[in-house]
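ARCHIVE CARD
Drawer: 12
Card no.: 0347
Subject: one protein chain, sequence and derived structure
Cross-reference: see card 0346
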Amino acid sequence: MTAQDSDPAMESWAAMAATFEAAGLAEPPIPTGLRPGLGEIDRWCWSTRPISAMDMYLFKDPAREVLTRPVSDYVAVSHAGHGVNSYAVNYHLVYRSLALFAQAGWGGVYTDRARATARGC
């Protein structure tokens, strides 16, 4: 693939996968059909729609909106938190008839990163 043939959306997916791999984590499962819409929102935050990593961490909108109305398919992945030890990898997937929201503690000064990474977060 040449520079002029590059696809920014697929580059975003590849950058996310590389970030997770460099941290020793498996890349998040992203349905193939959603990968082209994936964009880097912020450092350690990728999504196919506007979203805040902190809102993901706190399970605020858009996670809550799924409970009240139909939501277009999307995927979002982030690493966010607060304080010195409250950090997590966050995963949102709304796809067809599935709505999945997951969070796994990972990061923080008092967390054994090697142990957390070995268990998959």
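Annotation on reverse: The mean pLDDT is 86. The CA atoms of residues 92 and 101 lie 5 Å apart.
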